[in-house]
Amino acid sequence: MATFKAIRIDKADKGTTAALTQFDEAELMDGDVTVRVEWSTLNYKDGLALTGKAPVVRRFPMIAGIDFAGTVEASSHPAWKAGDKVVCTGWGMGETHLGAYAEKARVKGDWLVALPQGLSARDAMAIGTAGFTAMLSVLALEKHGVSPKSGPVVVTGAAGGVGSVATAVLSWLGYHVIASTGRASEADYLKSLGAAEVIDRNELSTPPKPLAKERWAGGVDSVGSTTLANLLSMTRYGGAIAACGLAAGMDLPSSVAPFILRGVCLLGIDSVMCPIEPRKAAWQRLASDLDRTKLSEITTEIALDEVPEWGAKILAGQVRGRIVVKIV
Questions:
Q1: How far apart are the C-alpha atoms of 197 and 180, rounded to whole Å?
Q2: Which one-letter DSSP state was computed for residue 256?
Q3: What is the mean pLDDT of the chain?
Q4: Which spans are transmembrane here (predicted)?
Q5: Sign of the torsion angle spanned by Cα atoms 97, 103, 106, 112
Q6: Taken in order 229, 233, 238, 241, is the CA torsion positive or negative?
Q7: For the whole model, what pTM was predicted?
Q8: Measured at the alpha carbon of residue 250, what is the angle toward residues 277 and 167, in degrees to the nearest 5?
Q9: CB 81: neighbour CB atoms within 10 A?
Q10: How far apart are CA 303 and CA 6, in angstroms?
Q11: Quick check: 87 pLDDT over 60?
C-alpha cells in the first residue's frame, strides 16, 4: 500500500508529539475527493496543535494542518474532476479530520473552493485561513456600512497573519488604517503594507472603561480579551468591530455601554464552518483586492520538515506575516 510524507501528531505519556513520518494511504479518512497537496500554511491554530499547548486535536493519530492548496487526483463528487486546482481551509482539518501537512489529503468535495483565477496555489496558501478570515472581517464591516468615509479603522495583532492581510486589504480599499502591535520594530513593515498609523498595543491593554474617547469607526480584532473590550469602548457611534481571534484570551471584560449608548456592533467571524457561498465570495475578493506585491512581502517559505519548529515560533510571537509550507 502506498505511503506519503506527513506531519503526524500522536499522544505521548505527557502531552503529544509531532514529527515528519510516512503515513499509510489506507489510513486516510472518508471523503469523495483525493487531492495531491502542493502547498500549505502555518496559522496560530496550527501552532497550538503542533505544540499541544491547547486541545485542538480531537483524534489520534492526526495529520496536522488546517489549510491546503493542490490538484485533484481522484473524485466521485460531481463538482470536481482530476486535474482541478482547489483550495481547502477549515472544516475541522487538523482537528477532527486528517489535515494538510501531507503529500495527500482526502476530504469532502463540499469543502473545496476552486482556486481563483489569477492566484497560484502558493498565493492561496500565503493567504490561507488567516487571510481568508481577514477578508471575511472586511466583508462584515462593509455589510455593516463601515466605509473609508466613515473614519479610521483599527487592526490589532497587525504584524500577525490576520492582521497583516487585514491591513493590506483595508489600505488597498482606501481606509485609514491604525495598526496596533506589540512589536515596535515592525512599524516600518506595517507602514509598507499601508498602515497610516502604528500604535503600541499597550494603549489597548489597560483595564477598559465602559466608554472611552471615540477613536475609530470600525476594526478587525484577532486578540480578544481586554484588547477587544477597549476597542469597543473606543468605537465611534454606529461603528463595528469584527472579532476573529483570541490570542490574548477568550474572556471579554466589557459592558453593554458601547452597544446601548453608541449603537456599536460586535461582529463575530468564523472561518472554520463558514458556508460555501461566503467562502467563494471572500476568495474572489482576495484575488482582486489584495496587492500581490504586498502578499509577497509578508510571506516566508518553509519546508514540510520545518513545520514543528515554526509551530513553536508562531506561538512565541516570533513570526511576521504569513508562512507558506512547500509540500512537494
A1: 9
A2: S
A3: 96
A4: none
A5: positive
A6: negative
A7: 0.93
A8: 55
A9: 11
A10: 12
A11: yes
